Amino acid sequence: MSAAREYELDEQYEWARPPQGGWTADDLDRLPNLPPHTELIDGSLVLVSPQAAFHARVMKLLEFALETQAPDESEVLREMTVRLDDKNRIEPDVLVTQPYEFLDAHQTWYGPQQVLLAVEVVSPDSRERDRDVKPRKYARAGVPHFWRVEEEGGLPVVYVYELDPALNAYQTTGIYHSKLTLSVPFPIEIDLTGINPRRP
C-alpha cells in the first residue's frame, strides 16, 4: 500500500472511514487523529478504554522486573506494537525482544520473530481479546512465550504459556499467585505483591 493512500474522513467525528477490505498494518502510522494505543485486529481498528490503576501498576512492576532480569542483549518495552501480518498489529502491554533485536529510533513496530515474550494485562473491556484472540494470533505468528495477567483480590495472577511448535499453539506451563519464578525464557523471579502502592 503506497503512502499516497487516500482516507475519507467522517466530518462529524473527524475519523477515517475504513477502506474496502479493511485497514492494514501500515495504515496505523498514517491515519490522522487516532487515539493512543489503537490496535489493528483482522483489519479493524480497536480502541482502548482509559487505563485503570491496577493495569498501570502491573505494567510498571513487570517492566522494572523484566528490565533488571532479562539478558543484556534483549530489550524490554511497554506498549510497542507487533506487526503479526498485514491485517493484525497489536500492542502487548509489555514485551521482551529476542537477543540483539533492536529497532532504530523511528521504527514503530516489531515483527513477531523479534519478540521473545509478550505480556497482556487483562482489563474488563479487553478480556475476550486478551484471553482468546491475542494469544491465538501471537502463537500462530510464532511468538515463543506469552503471559496473561488477571486481577484477583487486587493482586496479579500470571498465567504463563509456551509455544508448542508442533501445534502452533500455546500450552499452559503454570499459574502464579504472589510470586512468579521461572527458568524460561530466562531465569526470573517477581514478587507479585509488589504492585501495592507505597505507604508513608
UniProtKB/TrEMBL annotation:
Species this chain originates from = Streptomyces himastatinicus ATCC 53653
Its taxonomic path starts at: Bacteria, Bacillati, Actinomycetota, Actinomycetes, Kitasatosporales
Q: Which CDD domains match?
A: DUF820-like
Question: What is the protein name stated in its UniProt record?
Answer: Putative restriction endonuclease domain-containing protein
Any idea where the Putative restriction endonuclease domain is?
26-190
Pfam families with a match to the protein in the record: Uma2 (PF05685)
